[in-house]
Amino acid sequence: MNDIMKSVCSLLVSFCIGFVLGQGILMHYESKTFKPWGWKEAPVVMNCYGEELNILYIQDALNFWNLKGHTVAFVEQNPPAHLCKKDFIAGFIILKKTRRGELNSGTLAVTFRKRDGIYLSAATIKIKSGCYRLSNLLEHEFGHAFGYTHAKYEGHIMHPDYNKIGTKFWIPD
Questions:
Q1: Contact criterion met (CB below 8 Å) for 73 and 90
Q2: Exposure string (b/e) for 26-49, b if CB count within 10 Å is 16 or more?
Q3: 82: CB partners within 8 A, 6+ apart
Q4: C-alpha distances in Å from residue 151, one per residue of 30, 48, 71, 115
Q5: pLDDT digit string (tens) for 124-168?
Q6: Helices (H), strands (E): how many in the chain?
Q7: Is the pLDDT reported for residue 16 higher than 90?
Q8: Exposed/middle/buried for 7, CB within 10 Å: 0-12, 13-18, 19+?
Q9: Which residues, 6+ apart, have CB-to-CB distance to 33 below 8 Å?
């Protein structure tokens, strides 16, 4: 019985170490790679932010990325309410308004991504009320939803500081 317990404990410890090591490797890869993940198929964009986020704002932001080879299947401007309650839906990029206190005071928007193996499977963009109108903010967040990380080059669309974001885009060395 003692041998079985030792084997189970060894297996459990090995699994935990492997899991932590694997997560560390993924985090390192993501921090060192500008575009670590991509979509297997074009995602659907679902506007759960509300009617005030006009489809023209969404299309303008998507056109920026379309010119760089990123496409979406379509934009659903009036999704069913029950779908908007979900945090992630496979194959979708969901646009949502943040709730009060959900973001740090200086943060205008944030994008959460889910992966399925080496591909992105879902993304949710949460935007502070009214901030979708700020120049390049939607383009920046869609960049995250398409798999890009931050680029610390002033004028780059993926710069982490909104005041230094621009319309330039290139793959950093």
A1: no
A2: eeeeeeeeeebbebeeebbbbbbb
A3: none
A4: 12, 28, 21, 21
A5: 999 998 888 899 999 999 999 999 999 999 999 999 999 999 999
A6: 4, 6
A7: no
A8: exposed
A9: 149
